[in-house]
Fold this sequence. Notes:
Blueprint: H1 2-10, E1 20-25, E2 28-32, E3 38-43, E4 46-50, H2 58-66, E5 73-77, H3 83-86, E6 97-101, H4 102-109, E7 125-127, E8 130-135, E9 138-144, E10 154-158, E11 163-165, H5 185-196, E12 202-204, E13 211-212, H6 213-235, H7 240-251, H8 258-270
Parallel strand pairs: 4-5, 5-6, 6-7, 11-12
Antiparallel strand pairs: 1-2, 2-3, 3-4, 8-9, 9-10, 10-11, 12-13
Helix pairs in contact: 5-6, 6-7, 7-8
This protein binds zinc ion.
Amino acid sequence: MLMGCWIAYTQTQGKAPALTLNKVKDDLYEIEGDGGNVAVYVTGEGVILIDDKFEQDHDGIMEKVKSVTSQPVKYVLTTHHHSDHSGGNVRFVGTAEIISTANARQNIVEHKQPGAPANMTPAGVVFTKECSVFLGGKEVRAEYFGRGHTNGDAVIYFPALRTLHTGDLMAGTSPLIDYTGGGSLIEWTKTLDAALKLDIETVIPGHGKVTDKAGLATYRNNVEKLRTRATGLIREGKNQEEVGKVMAAEFGWNPGTMQANWSLPGIMKELK
Ligand SMILES: [Zn+2]
């Protein structure tokens, strides 16, 4: 497991891939490529970033920010502790306030992610339930609705734009459950149900293309489908390898990938 994660991490080091900036709506943009999706909220008093990818992406992110505003980055809201979302924190120390859930901070302090860089930098300001940043007459609200991908996933809500950044509570097409980081497949759907109660039109996932509320609801239902399928197999007495084969065939959890490596041993324990 350690080996698989380390390889996945080091493969992206040294050659920062090109990033693309897309306008989501009004003063909200998102940056895709290498690591998690970054949201860029521009106000008249500074920029609020959601996540900051790997450290190696810092210059690329700043180049994209500068292409839409001359305002400085004042806040970085971190969705969770993984290095593809908060690896760039180290470059904002002293210039921007970094905010995360208390659990996301703790997971960085305790080096919970195998293979993460030694200079991972935790938030300076934390919250346990909800935290709003008001800047230039605009609000960004971070909410903690419970466990899922980890035990510290914040969703970030832009009320005026009816837009939500989900972090890795929605990423790709199928969930990766980080049990070492406190994740839970049983809690995941409850967490998304709480998020779906928000007045949302547009959804920025942790990885993948921008979608809408229906896309998030579909993803939530897929998580439930996967859990029901895996629970049935485990209760029939299938072992990890057998469950893994079904997860690969039906939900894309291919053997040897970080998704399968991190999620499979955990679900065998959680769902039995
Ligand atoms: Zn993650």
